Every structure is written in C-alpha cells, then in structure tokens.
Amino acid sequence: MDKLTKDTYRVRFALPGNSQLGLWPGQHLILRGIVDGLEIQRAYTPISPVNAEGYFEVLIKCYQTGLMSRYVESWRAGDTTFWRGPFGGFFYKPNQYGELLMLAAGTGLAPMVPILHSITDNADDETFVTLVGCFKTFEDIYLKTFLQEQAHFWNIRTFFVLSQENSLEQLPWSYRGKTRFGRLAQDLIEELVGSCRRKPFALVCGSTEFTKDMARCLLRAGLAEDSYFLF
Questions:
Q1: 203 vs 7, 32, 65, CA distance in Å?
Q2: Do residues 44 and 58 touch, judged by C-beta distance below 8 A?
Q3: 214: left (phi > 0), else alpha (psi -120 to 50), else beta?
Q4: Which of 40, 75, 84, 202 counts the highest number of beta carbons within 10 A?
C-alpha cells in the first residue's frame, strides 16, 4: 500500500498464481467489506494494465468519516479482500476512435490509466489521446511519473487544471506549459475539442457534479450525446 497523497493510496492485491483479472480497459470491480457489522460496497477501477499477471492495483481515496475508509485503513499485508466483477459499460478496443478526450477529476483518473496502458503498449494502436486531469493542487496530482512517461508518446497529450493554485512559477518547468488554474469550464472545453487532431470521443470520470457539468459543456462544444461516455 503506497501513500500517494495525504488521503489517497495505491494498493496492490495479489491474484492466485499468474492469473489475470480478465477486464476490458476501463471496467471496474466492486469491493465488499464489513465494518461494525454493516456490509459496505464501493466500486474501484484497477489502474494496472489489463494483462498484468498475478496482481492488480487500485487507487483508493480515504475520508475521515467514511466506513469504507475505516475498512481500508485497517488492512495489513497478507489480509484477504473480497471483490466481484467486472462491471462497466465502456469497452475500449484498439483504433476504435480517432482521438480520446479524457476528462478526469481526482480519482476519476483511474479508468483512464488502463486505457492509456492499452494504447501505448500496443504499437498498432494509433489512437490520439488528450488527457485533462483536474486536481486541487500540484501535490494532489496522482501518478505523476506515469503521466509524464505517457506524455512522451507521439500520440498522447496531457494537461492539468488546478483549482487551488495560482502561480506557474511554483510549478516544475515541465508542467508550466500545460497547466491552467481555476476550474474546467466551457471555454477550455471548447478550446480542447477544437485542438483535437481527429474527431474526439470524450471519456468523463469524477464526482456526480463534475460529470454533469462536463456533459453539458461537451454538448455545447458540439459533441453529440453518442460522442461521450460518463463513467
């Protein structure tokens, strides 16, 4: 269990032998736990490659008053957890879209990660990707090394929107040209859609409020309802 930020962990789970989960990129699992005699369930999307053997990894954000958070923070190495799945209505296939516009807020980054893995691990997949990650601060950005590595591929672009930062000088040089401050709003969505190199299909994941806002912005930017998917 690796602590990525003050409240978010990357957790690795072992699978029997060299078995695989058998998910499509972007599908999720349901974690089941019991706290104070109450059964609780939450959905998590593995961030490990779908072809990973013998393990899978998830991003888990913990909240001070959350029952699932208490359950997660009680884990120790060697504990057994109970999962079911896969679930999810989005099934990524190589070269299915000309360009993917990924709009992710916080741990909404999770379903984008295996899709990115799938694209950049496959030399025959020529899908363009524009990923926009929305976080409060620079320190809150998850998986910085992975995202920087992905941005080196010829077909991947990454941008960041930070709601509680206001100074480019406080950011590393490599982030200054691809970071905006405030919130992801209509003007930036239209700019992103207009800058896509091919007709985009948008993937959106975040809070309920975020996904509703992004769906509205995408429609106003000219995308049809069948040109985006809300996780």
A1: 25, 26, 30
A2: yes
A3: alpha
A4: 202
